[in-house]
Design brief:
disordered N terminus, alpha+beta
Length: about 675
């Protein structure tokens, strides 16, 4: 067992010996969900710090919240308002704090709202079928600028552009188009230049993007845009202007997302087909200063009022906060207790970010760069648990196919009240994150503690293709989706089996979305796991290719191959066609309103597995999309999964759980 010391509550004097998985835990599903919120992208305004809170207790509604200058926290939007955009389906960048006011996209109607003099939301736009994200202010011209996703063509692919929104009339006008996707508009301090990112099919933003700059005329029209940097083989992230008017951006041209300054962008707009020397590296490191842009509004750096750069970077699975001084080259790391940080905002001499440590969940944190004193503005959960029940993430690097290594975090079963029976080892749950070009981290996660405190070992895998380990590591999955990721998940388990830390006869694999695809592939193409849990996972690549949203509609061309030219390969990588090879139990969780992985994917695999006679359960939640947001459904799915493992691995959960219908059990 692995445990941490705490002076607040001593360990039990005589632990009870009980089967792994059957341990009584204070970390209940209701506690995990009922007392937690999702914190979204903080922003610093003149009158406080703003953020969004995704609240499962309010059917997943995103409330806009502010910490006022007097220290009081207040909700700015009440139900039914939901500050979330559906652009790219994944959203992000749903609100902006400007000198002209606070603006946000409302989930239900996708209109932009502002808060009137009384603090009530007031519609700014009125056109149906448009979705907005990444809004910024253009105060000199009385308008907003942002990304617009136009769905008015019905069944056709939506059109993405940059638009201006006149604050007096609410009318949107296109100011830049001609690319499949846009993001990250930013205006120079003097208001004369606009920079942004764009990319085109089949690229995803972590594959290849371009940085564009254009002069802004007096009437607000843009001059001819010119490319400052980027290509199909270079991923750019978060352009931003320094107080002196120098354009900066993060690029992975070195193999790592590093900070760069765009030469010449401050005075002369770069010419078309900018050369490789357009960007000047500021602090070359084998570290990641950028992230895959799955959502809008992601930030990892910003400028203090004296021109220094406060930044986040990730190295060996740990996020660091540092300040870089361009005038001296000094790079000063600021110690924090947080192993994971995201969404950095910088203002004068302070920063705000979302941070978590191995023992505490995410929180909005404010830190003074001068005194280096920090304070927690808002915690993502109100629940607390004795430290003796907390399993600490252990980074592991394990061998995998091709003589390579992959990365994961292992969590040992931890509960001071229990031991497993002598001579036994705990079951292992292998977790596969979504994306697949996403990543897991070592910060505290209630859902992992839910399992470890009941006697499960958990390994959270950053398989090949994950971000955080450089471009080459991300590209391991190109053409190999359904192969490299599955091998890495299996090899993580084999590594722990070899260390005699887990039971080789009690192995489960769970994941959502792309992680759910990994689950289904592992069960179809390998006889290794005894059980699998798929949350809105992909069963049929060909069907997904023909029935998903624009943002990911060409994603599989790089991950699998050209379509329809490689149709046979898509079929060969689709678990739905290989049910006859499956021999393990599975449970499927799905949202009925999922637009990313449609519900028919789960239904098809369920019917096929059920017909074969394998133990299988299918749980469909009405009103849920891609990723569950409602407290009752998150609670039910956790408990149903535990019930399922109890039936498969032969233990009786300590919790009182509503039985789940499992066919062929």
């Amino acid at each position: 067992m692995n445990s941490t010391e705490s002076s607040s509550s001593p360990k039990a004097a005589s632990p009870i010996y009980a089967a792994f998985g059957s341990w009584k835990s204070p970390i209940t599903a209701a506690l995990v969900v009922g007392e937690s919120i999702r914190l979204g992208q903080p922003r610093i305004g003149a009158d406080g710090i703003y953020w969004t809170e995704g609240r499962p207790q309010e059917k997943g509604r995103n409330a806009l919240v502010r910490l006022r200058a007097d220290g009081e926290v207040e909700d700015l939007t009440a139900a039914p308002f939901d500050a979330a955009t559906r652009a790219h389906e994944y959203g992000g960048g749903s609100f902006a704090v400007t000198a002209a006011g606070v603006f946000f996209s409302n989930f239900k109607d996708q209109q932009v709202y502002t808060l009137d003099a009384s603090g009530q939301p007031k519609a700014v736009t009125q056109t149906e079928g448009l979705r907005y994200a990444d809004l910024i202010a253009d105060p000199a011209r009385g308008r907003l600028i942002g990304v617009c996703e136009d769905h008015r063509q019905g069944g056709h692919e939506p059109v993405n552009t940059l638009v201006s929104i006149d604050l007096a009339t609410g009318k949107a006008a296109v100011i830049a188009d001609g690319h499949d996707f846009f993001s990250s508009p930013c205006i120079s301090p003097d208001g004369t230049r606009l920079a942004w990112l764009s990319w085109d099919h089949p690229n995803m933003p972590w594959d290849g993007t371009e940085l564009w700059v254009a002069e802004i005329a007096a009437d607000g029209a843009l001059g001819k845009p010119r490319r400052a940097a980027g290509s199909n083989s270079e991923s750019l992230f978060q352009p931003a202007w320094s107080p002196a008017g120098d354009l900066h951006v993060v690029s992975d041209r070195s193999g790592w997302w590093n900070l760069y300054r765009a030469r010449g962008a401050s005075s002369v707009v770069p010419d078309v087909n900018a050369s490789d020397d357009t960007l000047e590296a500021l602090r070359p490191m084998d570290a990641e200063f950028g992230k895959p842009q799955w959502v809008f509004g992601m930030t990892t750096y910003g400028f203090t009022d004296d021109g220094r750069i406060a930044c986040l970077y990730e190295q060996n699975g740990i996020t660091h906060l540092a300040v870089y001084d361009p005038s001296t080259g000094a790079f000063d790391e600021i110690p924090t207790p947080y192993s994971t940080m995201r969404d950095l905002q910088v203002d004068a001499q302070r920063v705000a970010f979302v941070g978590s440590s191995p023992t505490a969940g995410e929180a909005i944190v404010e830190l003074d760069l001068g005194t280096r004193v920090s304070r927690i503005v808002r915690k993502s959960d109100r629940a607390e648990v004795d430290a003796h029940y907390v399993s600490i993430a252990e980074p592991i690097r394990f061998p995998t196919e091709g003589g390579l290594h992959a990365h994961a975090f292992f969590y040992a079963p931890t509960n001071p009240d229990f031991n497993g029976p002598d001579g036994t080892l705990p079951p292992l749950i292998v977790i596969a994150h979504g994306g697949p070009t996403s990543a897991t981290h070592s910060g505290f996660k209630w859902q992992i503690q839910y399992w470890t405190s009941r006697g499960f070992g958990v390994v959270d895998v950053n398989y090949g293709g994950s971000s955080g380990h450089g471009r080459a590591y991300r590209q391991r999955l190109n053409g190999q989706w359904g192969i490299v990721d599955i091998n890495d998940a299996i090899n993580a388990a084999r590594y722990l089996i070899g260390q005699k830390r887990v039971n080789e006869n009690a192995l489960a694999v769970r994941g959502g979305s792309a992680g759910g695809y990994l689950v289904l592939c592992a069960l179809a193409f390998h006889d290794f796991f005894k059980a699998g849990t798929s949350y809105y996972g992909v069963a049929d690549l060909e069907a997904l290719m023909q029935d998903t949203h624009k943002f990911e509609s060409r994603y599989m061309i790089r991950l699998v191959g050209p379509y329809p030219e490689e149709r046979a390969l898509y079929q060969a990588r689709s678990p739905i066609h290989f049910v006859e090879r499956m021999s393990s139990a599975m449970i499927l969780f799905q949202g009925a309103d999922d637009k990313v992985v449609p519900p028919n994917q789960a239904e098809s695999i369920y019917q096929a597995v059920r017909a074969k006679g394998l133990p299988v359960a299918h749980v469909l939640y009405q009103g849920e999309g891609h990723g569950f947001k409602r407290a009752e459904n998150i609670t039910h799915s956790l408990e149903a999964e535990l019930y399922f493992y109890g039936k498969v691995f032969g233990f009786e959960p300590a919790d009182k759980i509503e039985p789940v219908a499992i066919d062929n059990i």
